[in-house]
Amino acid sequence: MRLRRLEDLGDISGKRVFVRVDYNVPLAEGSVADDSRIRASLTTLQELVRGGASLVVASHLGRPKGQVKEEARLAPVARRLGELLGGAVGYEPTDGVLDASVERRCAELRPGEIVLLENLRFDPGEEANDPTFAARLAALADVYVDDAFGAVHRAHASVAALPALFLERGRPVAAGRLLEREVAALSRLLEEPERPYVAVLGGAKVSDKLSTIGALVERVDALLIGGAMAFTFIAAEGGEVGDSLVEPDRFDDVRSARRRAEERGVLIQLPEDVVAAPERSLEAPRETVPANAIPRGRMGLDIGPRTVEEFARTLSDAKTILWNGPMGVFELEPFSAGTRGVATAIAGSTAYSVVGGGDSLSAIRRLGLEQGFGHLSTGGGASLEFIEGRKLPGIAVLEVT
Ligand code: ADP
Ligand code: MG
Asked: Which in 79, 106, 159, 201 has the greatest CB count within 10 A?
């Protein structure tokens, strides 16, 4: 697979470029609480501006579901983007996404100028992949660039119908630098990864990640399962998991994943011990118990020290590692040791390591271990779908055919 890149756009000087970015950032008290996604887009924006283009930048934020929601406006994002770029970013709160004033503003852009559109999801056409909405967006620019890796797995107008329309009209489209980097890094897990290839999965719900588990069983040499999702595996085999989070309607799915792993000779490693407590709180009394014998009235909130050791042992032999999902309720210090242990083991390994998932990333940042990883993906869902080997609408449209 080869993606169209910025080099493929030709001369962009004097052109207007529509840049789809992922500014789905956390807001707090009217400002951006974590600007890493905005920073991640700067390389592409600056490169396009240096090329003499003007930019129409667009993103979604949150789930306003096709309606204008005051708390989901991009005003704080526009402010932060301006600060980071060291210049003004044109933004006006509209009653929707597009109106005559915004359209005029985009039409009158001069080289180097930047407009940030209002939250794309204020228009129901965005999530509906509506061709009419796409056509209105297409009228704003001459060139299309997608740098929103976190959104490429969705067939939404700004990532699917819009670039398709540009192509139809013979106008240039390309992936931005962030998207290009993500695809290159994640491709290393798909195309003949160095073995052993070990995946570590955690997080709250097994149901969120069943398709990932199913796909990984076909690709990896070992699958280490922590977080709450481990309890569905353990309970499906008759283990006692006390009050831990369990999804009984997924017992059949996890059993068949295990059968398939066995057929393929893939090791599925589950926790041996867990840190259990009566409730998720800082004060709750804790004890380390066998993962398949958690007393009633207690829930497993982290993997235990023996499990950390066992997981670390498997990880130390790995040549390729994928990690998604914390090993416990890492947000609370008493239940963060498992996540810290696994993160430290991966960071210390010489394997090529990739991490996806918002919570996993925030755990790594909190630990200051960023440097120990080969690639920190900016897309949670998108990175999982990519490494499952699925065709993603926002990427397929940018491939050279
Ligand atoms: P990511 O964002 O990295 O993909 P998820 O969103 O799937 O990760 O899961 C993260 C959440 O899982 C965290 O909020 C964490 O508290 C929760 N979690 C992990 N282990 C457990 C557990 N044993 N019990 C309850 N919640 C858990
Ligand atoms: Mg999460």
From this structure: 159
Nearest CA among 126, 108, 155, 133 for reference residue 62: 126
Distance in angstroms (rounded) separating the CA atoms of residues 185 and 61? 25
**What ligand 1 atom has the least distance to the C-alpha of 328?**
20
Express each pLDDT in 133-168 by its tens digit.
999 999 999 999 999 999 999 999 999 999 999 999
How far does CA 177 lie from the centroid of its chain? 16
Structural domains of the chain, with CATH: 6-178 (3.40.50.1260), 192-387 (3.40.50.1260)
SS3 383: helix
The mean pLDDT of 72-83, rounded to a whole number, is: 98
Report, in angstroms and rounded to the nearest whole number, the Rg of the chain calculated over CA atoms: 23
Share of the chain above pLDDT 90, in %: 96
Cα separation, 161 vs 164, in Å, equals: 5
- Sign for the CA dihedral angle at 67, 18, 390, 386 comes to negative
Ligand nearest to the CA of 324: 1
User: How many CA atoms are closer than 13 Å to the CA of 51, on its beta-carbon side?
Assistant: 21
Query: How many angstroms separate the alpha carbon of residue 348 from the centre of ligand 2?
Result: 24
Q: Which ligand is nearest to the CA of 383?
A: 1
CB atoms within 10 A of CB 70: 8
Which DSSP category does 391 fall into?
P
- The predicted pLDDT at position 326 comes to 97
Whether the ω angle into residue 285 lies within 30 degrees of 0, i.e. cis, is: no
For residue 73, give the DSSP letter. -
Task: Supply the pTM of this predicted model.
Answer: 0.92
**Rounded CA gap, 181 and 142, in Å?**
24
Round to whole Å and give the CA distance between 217 and 219. 6
Q: Give the pLDDT confidence score for residue 380 in this predicted structure.
A: 86
Query: Average pLDDT over the chain, rounded to whole?
Result: 96
pLDDT band of 358, cuts 50, 70, 90 = confident
The model's confidence at residue 55, banded by pLDDT at 50, 70 and 90, is very high
Q: Give me the helix-helix angle, 337-348 and 305-317, nearest 10°.
A: 20
Give the active site residues: 37, 205, 358, 381
Rounded to the nearest angstrom, the gap between the alpha carbon of residue 37 and the centroid of all alpha carbons in its chain is: 11
What is the atom index within ligand 1 of the atom nearest the CA of 360? Answer: 3
